[in-house]
Amino acid sequence: MRLVLLGAPGSGKGTQGEKLVAHFGIPKISTGDALRAAVKAGTELGKKAKATMDAGGLVANEIVIGIVEERLGQPDAQKGFILDGFPRNTAQAEVLDGMLKRLGQPGIDKAVHLHVTDEEIVKRLLDRAQKEGREDDKEDVIRKRIEVYNAETRPLLDYYSKQGKVVTVEGIGSLEEIFNRILAVTR
Question: Which region ranges are annotated with the description NMP (predicted)?
Fold first, then answer.
């Protein structure tokens, strides 16, 4: 099973991704986690990423892509994986398709879109910020993140729709209800 999780920040990708990992026994590959692992392992790409991260900059696209490719080439990802946070745009999706071919792996099976309204996302993230004491998650910042998602990442729905791979799941309800909806469309 090779899944891409799509949805705005706060839609539940991380939570549902962890449940899917446990269910399918395949790794969840998050770009943030992969970057940190490459830095910790001291790989060439990890060293390049660390220099940028230490300077407070955004890690270059080619480094992120290289790190994802390194991760997808590892033995535990051969039988499948769940991608969270990559691809972020159509250009990265095209690179991912080529990368999987180069690695001799099948393409993406499904792009699971967790649909949650913008207002529900704002409510969730403000609630989470309050519970976790995160003062940086103000409503205007959250709305900006949603705006960036809609502009940059949402077009992936069209990209994967054209391939017949998008499955949209209502992302409102209990964790178990949402998880069961995902399982129903990924079989």
Answer: 30-59
